[in-house]
From TrEMBL:
Molecular function GO terms recorded: oxidoreductase activity
Organism, scientific name: Photobacterium phosphoreum
Domain of life: Bacteria
PANTHER family associated with the record: NAD(P)-BINDING ROSSMANN-FOLD SUPERFAMILY PROTEIN, SHORT-CHAIN DEHYDROGENASE/REDUCTASE
One cellular component term from this protein's GO annotations in UniProt: cytoplasm
Annotated Pfam families: adh_short
Descriptive protein name: Short chain dehydrogenase
C-alpha cells in the first residue's frame, strides 16, 4: 500500500501514519510537514517539507509520486495566536476569515487537482479530508464560529463536488469527508476543558476510527460525510 498523509506532523496526522504502519507494516508512507519534522523515522516513511497552501509545492510533490492508494488531508486550523473563533459577527475579522479558508478549504482543492493521476493509477483508492461537524449547514443550531464553520462548509462542498466529478474520471476512488470528533490536539486545546472526558479522544483513537472506517468503504460509498463512529452527517 502507498499512502500520502498531508499534515503528518499534527496530532491526527502522525497518529494515522503510525496506525497505517502498524496495520500494514510493508506500506510505503509519504507525509508532509510545514515547519518541524517529527522525530519519527521508520524506513517505510518519507517526509516532505511543503507549504500546503502553495500550489507549486503540491505540484512538485505530486510529480514525485506516481501511484497512491490513499491520500489523507489532516491539515486544519481553528484559532491563531491572535484570534479565537468568533462568538458574534461583531468579532468577524477579514484576515482571520481568509486564513481559515486558506488552511481549511484550499489544500483539499489543490490536492484533488494534482493527485488525481496518482490516485487513478491505483486499482482502488481513497481521498479523505478531515472536516468537522460544525461545517454542516443543516446541523448548525448554535451559530458562532463563523469563519471556521464557513471554511469547513466550503470544504464539504468541495469534497461533494469532487466526488461527483470523479465518479466518471476515477470510478474506483472513494472520496470522503471525515469528522474526527473532539481530538486532544493543539487545534482543540483552548476548548478541551468544556468537553466531557469520554468525548475527548486521543489522536490514536481518532486514527483508529478513521482507518477502521476506510476498511468498510468501497467506491460505492463515495461522496459521504461520515463521523468517527460511522454515522452519516448531513451536509
Amino acid at each position: 500500500m502507498k499512502a500520502l498523509v498531508v499534515g503528518g506532523s499534527g496530532g491526527i496526522g502522525l497518529a494515522v501514519i503510525k496506525q497505517l504502519l502498524h496495520l500494514k507494516p510493508h506500506s510505503q508512507i509519504h507525509a508532509t510537514y510545514f515547519r518541524h519534522q517529527p522525530d519519527y523515522h521508520p524506513p517505510q516513511l518519507h517526509w516532505h517539507q511543503i507549504d500546503i497552501t502553495v500550489e507549486t509545492d503540491i505540484a512538485k510533490l505530486a510529480a514525485q509520486l506516481i501511484q497512491l492508494d490513499i491520500v489523507i488531508n489532516a491539515v486544519g486550523m481553528l484559532h491563531t495566536a491572535e484570534h479565537l473563533p468568533e462568538k458574534s459577527i461583531q468579532h468577524f475579522d477579514v484576515d482571520f476569515f481568509q486564513t481559515n479558508i486558506q488552511t481549511n478549504t484550499l489544500p483539499t482543492l489543490l490536492l484533488a487537482k494534482h493527485f488525481m493521476l496518482p490516485l487513478k493509477a491505483s486499482r482502488r483508492s481513497y481521498f479523505v479530508t478531515v472536516s468537522a461537524k460544525v461545517g454542516s449547514i443543516e446541523d448548525n443550531k448554535l451559530g458562532g464560529w463563523i469563519s471556521y464553520r464557513s471554511s469547513k462548509a466550503a470544504l464539504n462542498m468541495a469534497i461533494k463536488t469532487i466526488s461527483i466529478e470523479w465518479r466518471t474520471k476515477l470510478p474506483h476512488c472513494c472520496v470522503l469527508a471525515f469528522h474526527p470528533g473532539t481530538t486532544a490536539s493543539s487545534l482543540s486545546k483552548p476548548f478541551q476543558r468544556n468537553v466531557a472526558l469520554h468525548k475527548l479522544f486521543t489522536p490514536e483513537y481518532t486514527a483508529q476510527c478513521l482507518l477502521n472506517l476506510l476498511a468498510t468503504l468501497t467506491p460505492q460509498n463515495t461522496g459521504k460525510f461520515l463521523s468517527y463512529d460511522g454515522s452519516t452527517i448531513p451536509w
